[in-house]
Structures are given as C-alpha cells and as structure tokens.
Amino acid sequence: MRIYFLTALLAISPLVLAEENTAPANETPFTTVGEKIAIDNKTQDTTKTPDNEIPIAVTEALKKFAKTDISKIKLSSTPIPNLYEAMIGSEVVYLSGDGNYLIMGEIRDLSTGKNITDGKLAKLRLEAINSLNVRDMVVFAPENGTKHVVHVYTDVNCPYCSKLHLEVPALNKAGIEVRYLAFPRAGIGSDTYNKMVSVWCTKDKQQAMTDAKANIEIEKAECNNPVADQYNLGQSIGISGTPALILSDGELIPGFLPAVRLINYIEQKNSSISAK
Q: Catalytic one among 2, 161, 211, 249?
C-alpha cells in the first residue's frame, strides 16, 4: 500500500497553504501526547505548535485510524510545517496538524535526494535483524574474509530466489556474506514451510538450501527451528515478497538484483559513507 512521492506532495500542498490562515483570538493551546484537554477543533490553530508537542487533533485522529493503544505509536514532527509523522508498527503515515488529512507514502528531501520515510523504516529493520542469532540463519560466507553482510529473506520455491542463489558465489568472491532468513510466502504450515523446516533442520544447511532451490528433493527433517519466528518477524518489518535484501544499514532492496549491480551499489554506498 504505497503511494509515490508525487501523490504525497500534491496531498501536502493544501496543508502548506493553510498555514497562511490567522488563528482566532480565543485560540486553545495544544497539549503533548498523553494529556487530555478538550479542544474545539473549529477554533484550533495548528500553525504554532512547538516542535516538541503534538496537536491533540493528531492523536485523536490516530485513535480512530490506528485502532491501537496510542502509547505504542511513535509520534514526531517532520521537516514540513504542520505535518506530523506516526510510526505504527512497521508502517509510517503522516497527518496534518488539524487531524483532517492522513497521507500514506514517502517524503523525499529534494535538496539531498534523501528518502526521509525509508530512513525511519531502515532503523526498525536493522533493530529487528540485530535481534536475531546468526546461528539461526543459513550463512554463505566468503573464504577470504567478510567485507559486507547482506541478509536475504528467501523462499525455496521462489524462482527469483533461486536465480539470486546462483549469484552467491560471485557475491562471496567480492567479500559479501549472504545470510538467509526464512520467509515461506505460502505461510506457516504450507508445503513450502515444511520444506524450509527440513532445510534448517538438516546438518548441511548450505547444501540443503542449494538443493531445495534447484528443485532437488531433500530429506524431510524436523527439529526446534526458527522458520516460523523469522517469517513472523519479516512480516512485522514490512517484508511481503521474496527475495528481500536487507543491507547493513537497514535499507531494503526488494526483488532480484544481479551480483554485479549489487556489488557496485554496496561498494559505492560504503565509499560515500566513508567519505563523510
């Protein structure tokens, strides 16, 4: 459920124009999140809200939209006046200060090209990935030392996952370690799920992963495994398809990407970070 930036920009423009309105003399001050103050929305001025305060109209709108405990929603201001950001689980939405408009999409800084929305989601993904134990992943590591790590949510019955797996030797040669996480798209209990459980429960997980993706039958196996947990975690951070690549800074690259392009992108990205 993504709306491109242009749509979001067009939706925002009326909010910016609304800032020219003059507030009524009996203006009611805004309150921070958690306080309960009755406000008449007709006389409310949202243009003078301090950066560290959220208009009560925003929290009231979220209660109706999110249908969840407001204390679990992370609220903050944005670089755009009178526009506020709400992180609901793995989803980021934006609301106008008067609580009348909700925007689903991305905000991009045109002066730098930076995707502000994805920056917030990247931190969420990174925290989730860092909470996992590497021993619960199927790892393909370079022989001559790891320079970069890419986590890949995969499905053994996904054609593009199999295509990406053929690129792993080239990635390893470039010093990129591939760490597979389970994401059976058909869901828990499906044939794909059971097949991936067998991969994770086999002694030689790397060979089992390679065989499964080559459509070679592997021996059924069961054990205490992380497949369901990894699948559920993937859903919680917005993974909806495979392959889904998560870079070391939390950036998500959905879909297949040839090794050459992925290697160049990672190296260029790290070079620009080092240069700062």
A: 161
In a domain, 60, yes or no: yes
Alpha helices, H only, the chain: 5-17, 56-66, 116-130, 159-165, 168-173, 191-201, 205-213, 227-236, 259-275
The per-residue pLDDT for range 203-228, each reduced to its tens digit, is 999 999 999 999 999 999 999 999 99
Find the CATH number of the domain harbouring 92: 3.10.450.70
pTM of the model: 0.69
Structure tokens at 152: 């890949």
| Residue 201 a catalytic site member | no
**What CATH number is associated with residue 269?**
3.40.30.10
Considering the candidates 155, 179, 249, 261, report the single residue annotated as catalytic: 155
Greatest extent of the chain over all pairs of C-alpha atoms, in Å:
76
Active site residue 136: no
Residue at a domain's end among 91, 115, 139: 115
Q: Which of 186, 175, 152 is nearest to 257 (CA)?
A: 152
**Boundaries of domain holding 152:** 128-275
Assess whether 158 carries a catalytic annotation: yes
Note if 223 is an active site residue. no
144 with 109, same domain? no
The active-site residue, picked from 108, 125, 179, 185, is: 185
Four-point Cα dihedral 111, 116, 122, 124, nearest 10? 160
Nearest Cα to 79, choosing from 45, 33, 120? 120
Residue 122 lies in a domain: no
**In a shared domain, residues 110 and 136:** no
Residue range 116-164, pLDDT digits in tens: 877 778 888 999 999 999 999 999 999 999 999 999 999 999 999 999 9
Cβ proximity of 156 and 209 under 8 Å: yes
Catalytic residue selected from 158, 201, 211, 261: 158
